[in-house]
Amino acid sequence: MKALLILIVFEWKTLLKGLFVVFLIIFPFTFLPILVSDGFDTDALLNHLPWAALFTFLFSLFILGAALMKNVQSLYYRKKIFDMPAFEKLDFYGRFLGSGSISKDLESMLVGRVNKYYFRIRIENPENENIMVEITPLIDYVGMTELKEKLISNHMFAESDNDLLVCFKSLSKEELKNENLLLDKLKEFEELLLLHKAVSLDINDEELNEVKSY
């Protein structure tokens, strides 16, 4: 319940926007039965208007509530995974993806620095026994063709939609109990980035250090 209330407070503007959009989509369809039975009868349409508005509002609330519970459950699973030793050892900061969007689910992720370079960590299928961990070095790849090729060919990185490279690791929950597992991997990547004199993206340290998002 506490997580639900926090999410409502955190995303109340998005929830209102979502409620409005869903209402506008559903509302016209509630007049179809009247149009079929009575045609374009103005009196019949006006008499139906209050019931149509009430039904649409309640149905929109139901849809919004279902989406909200789905997000709460997903964030709960992710929080449990991020509390495991391998992630805790990193001491990264929690951030949210999808905030302010009515078309994307809210997703928690981690952002932090290992020595000189920043990394972003996301997880997929957190409710499963094996977790897909996505590691993204936050560096500028302009003029770094050799580094990109090496990361792709030797370290199983792949290009993403935003021109960054991501590495996927399938790890079991048992493996994630090893607190040094991810830290050692990030240190390995950090040494490779240093070797190729990679340039970190401009990230505000003060904003990261102010407060964790969850």
What does this structure look like?
The chain is an alpha+beta fold and 214 residues long. The protein folds into two domains: 2-80, no CATH class; 84-210, Yope Regulator, Chain: A, CATH 3.30.1460. The protein has eight helices and eight strands. The protein has helices spanning 2-10, 12-26, 32-38, 42-82, 85-88, 145-154, 181-195, 205-210; strands at 93-97, 107-114, 117-124, 130-137, 139-140, 157-159, 165-172, 199-200. Strands 1-2-3-4-7-6 form a six-stranded antiparallel sheet. The protein has a two-stranded antiparallel sheet with strand order 5-8. The radius of gyration is 23 Å and the shape is elongated. The model has no long low-confidence stretch (mean pLDDT 84).
Q: What is the CATH T-level topology of the largest domain?
A: Yope Regulator, Chain: A
- Residue ranges: pLDDT <50 for 5 or more in a row? none
CATH architecture of the largest domain: 2-Layer Sandwich
Tell me the Rg in angstroms.
23 Å
Major sheet: arrangement of strands: 1-2-3-4-7-6
The figure for the number of domains is: 2
Q: Biggest sheet, open or closed, and with what strands and sense?
A: 6 strands, antiparallel
Instruction: Count every helix, treating DSSP H or I runs of 4 or more residues as helices.
Output: 8
CATH class of the largest domain: Alpha Beta
Shape: elongated
Distance between the termini: 15 Å
